[in-house]
Amino acid sequence: MRVLAIETSCDDTAAAVLDDSGVRASIVASQDMVHGKYGGIVPELASRQHMLAILPVIERALAEAAVTLDDIEAVTATYGPGLVGSLLVGLQVAKGIAFERGLPFIGVNHLEGHLLAILLDRPVPFPYLGLLVSGGHTSLYLVEDLGRYRQLGRTRDDAAGEAFDKGAKMLGLGFPGGREIDRRAAAGNRTAIRFPRASLKQGRYDFSFSGVKTSLRQYLLDGGDAALEDVCASFQEAIVEMLVVPTLKAARDLGTGVIVVSGGVSANSRLRTAMTEAGAAVGLEVAFPRVAYCTDNAAMIGYAGRVRLLRGERHDLTLNASATLPIGVAS
Ligand code: KG4
Ligand code: ZN
Q: How many whole angstroms from 1 Cα to the centroid of ligand 1?
């Protein structure tokens, strides 16, 4: 089954083509240039930008896959969670194509896309532990099977990506700043400054990043004068450690197999090394999708949508966007 997948939940306009042989094309048009000067995503501008980009992005995906719309057999798109004005653009275009062509259609949960993205690169046996770390979410799930997700923990305040982005803003590194902190940190000393780590109640797998953000602000207000690279490396180390510790604890408590880390922050090079080493120390395998499938993309939506379409699942064309679409069950 050859599927066209569309993702516009936040600030990236993305389209992909997948078939039996895998991902034939995956195109992402970033809006960083639009939102950068505001220091954060402006929802109204995001939807307008999606309107401009969506058809050219779909055309590029079809061209790269060397197919036309005539070759597409089903359509899938993200329908939540995310910014409603953004979601509606991709969802309506997808439904329009499905309607005009008489093709099967299914909506996909963005978080499910992130949790399954690893399966584009390699098989992983169920159940696996899924840490989802992005700009909007930081949650830990037990991925029991395709479509069965048990939430084990979540952030009590900011998402990890939000902490990276707010820290980067304080350091004058632009928006979104996670990648820039990662880049600067590579040349820094991660033990230069000891930012406090939040420790949450025993027995839970929750996260908290507002404290480390505040302590960076205080450090700068107090005239902290360590080299920018050292500040980045130390700040990044605190966030990474607060992600690694509860995740490893959950993996050990639950006796799960592979730990899969996904979402935009899973592109972070220190998180990749630290989580892999911490896992190896206790005999646990850690897997990350390739970087292009960590940040927002339509290939992961195509994977999740295609699995459901192949099972015969469909949504009708009245499907609406949902800002808060839930995934799985809380435990
Ligand atoms: O998954 P994603 O592309 O969009 C959301 O659904 O949120 O994640 C974007 C987040 C941003 O906060 C960005 O700063 C962060 O991922 N990010 C990184 C890195 N690359 C992207 N954070 C730390 N290190 C990176 N290399
Ligand atoms: Zn995302």
A: 31
Which token pair is 115? 């949790």
List strand residue ranges (DSSP E) for 186-308, in order. Answer: 259-262, 286-287
Which mutation among 32, 131, 164, 171 tests ligand 1's pocket best, with the greatest number of atoms within 8 A of CB? 164
**Nearest-5° Cα angle at 230, 228 to 232:** 70
75 contacts 103 by C-beta, under 8 angstroms: yes
Where do we find the tokens 């960083």?
32
- Structure letter (DSSP) for residue 263: S
Block residue for tokens 């195509």? 302
Q: What is the DSSP letter of 208?
A: -
Mutating to test ligand 1, I would choose from 28, 265, 296 the residue with most ligand atoms within 8 A of its C-beta, which is 265
**Claim: this prediction has a pTM higher than 0.90:** yes
> Counting Cβ atoms within 10 Å, is residue 320 exposed (0-12), middle (13-18) or buried (19+)?
exposed
Q: For 269-318, what is each residue's pLDDT tens digit? A: 999 999 999 999 999 999 999 999 999 999 999 999 999 999 999 999 99
pLDDT digits (tens, 9 = 90+) for 214-226: 999 999 999 999 9
235-267 burial code (b ≥16 CB/10 A, e <16): bbbbbbbbbbbbbbbbbeeeebebbbbbbbbbb
Give the distance (Å) from ligand 2 centre to CA of residue 235.
22
Ligand nearest to the CA of 186: 1
Strands 105-109, 74-80: pairing kind: parallel
Do residues 14 and 28 make contact, with C-beta atoms less than 8 angstroms apart? Answer: yes
Closest protein CA for atom 3 of ligand 1: 295
